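Give me the fold.
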Amino acid sequence: MNKQDIISILNDFSYSRSEYWVIAGSAMVLYGIREQTHDIDMGCTSKMADILESDGYPYSLTESGNRKFKIGDNIEVFEKWIKDTIDIVDNIPVISIKGLVLMKQELGRDKDKKDIALIKEYLGTKIELVEI
């Protein structure tokens, strides 16, 4: 899914934007670091996790003991998964780029290392544009 697909899905998402933030590949798409992602990953507050649980969404527990929800085919929600701060991109709460890098470093998979390289390239391009 591309940036417009993500925005469209989140515009129809019936939960408060003050209770969640977009992370991982979907955050990279919203920032314009990459063009596509397979799904929307997000973090949420415990309050929203309680609401998701009461709304009947199935969940499993992560290694840290927080809940991980699957909402439909496109959305995974991780309770209290946040690094750094939240920025607003196109009216959507998104993990900061620094937080995104911290998450990717923590995961440490090959695809995360490739994503970190893309983020560095993106930041280098933005810095060059600012300096001109």
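Residues 62 and 68 are 7 Å apart (CA to CA).
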